[in-house]
Specification:
By secondary structure, the chain is an all-beta fold. The chain contains 1 helix and 16 strands. It has 3 domains: 63 residues, SH3 type barrels (Roll), CATH 2.30.30; 59 residues, Nucleic acid-binding proteins (OB fold (Dihydrolipoamide Acetyltransferase, E2P)); 57 residues, Nucleic acid-binding proteins (OB fold (Dihydrolipoamide Acetyltransferase, E2P), Beta Barrel), CATH 2.40.50. The protein has a 6-stranded antiparallel sheet, with no helix packed on it. A 5-stranded antiparallel sheet has the order 9-8-7-10-11. Strand 3 and strand 4 form a beta hairpin. The longest helix is centred in the middle third of the chain and has 4 residues. It is flat.
Amino acid sequence: MVKVIASSVRKGNVLDVDGKLYVVLTAQNFHPGKGTPVTQVDMRRIVDGVKVSERWRTTEQVERAFVEDVNFQYLYEDGEGFHFMNPANYDQVVVSQETMGDQKAYLQEGMTCILSIHEGIPLALELPRHVTLEIVETEPVVKGQTASSSYKPAMLSNGIRTSVPPHIDAGTRVVIATEDNSYVERAKD
């Protein structure tokens, strides 16, 4: 176990709190004008999936569990869960629906992801920062809108809604940020 300050905790980290392992779902640092800065952390207990919210002063020490981050390639999904393969030794790992969470919408066959593994158990998944998806449907452009400040809603091929610039039409492939579902650019392929 490694002690780190609370302000350095990030999404996907695995913490040891009171002898139990937790995966960090969100971590935010708050710096009020008056008072002590704090870090608000939402976590999921690995053993039973219970969600917990903790608040620490940013300078407090928290224990980070030793987790091995390994590149895995996504293969397929079935009733057991999501199957990944380690390209270095061809070992296969099954990741549960609970561990995957809402990130499953971005998984594409053959995609390389980083799995955080603790004692042989996959705890968290880190997707690539950007994925390329196709726009399935989008609303027509309203005449008179300027291109600089307006975005229009669009549906991606994975079922997620996002906002895109007015010049993007259905059938266009775009690059999307997996962290916040935001449009990055038109795909260059």
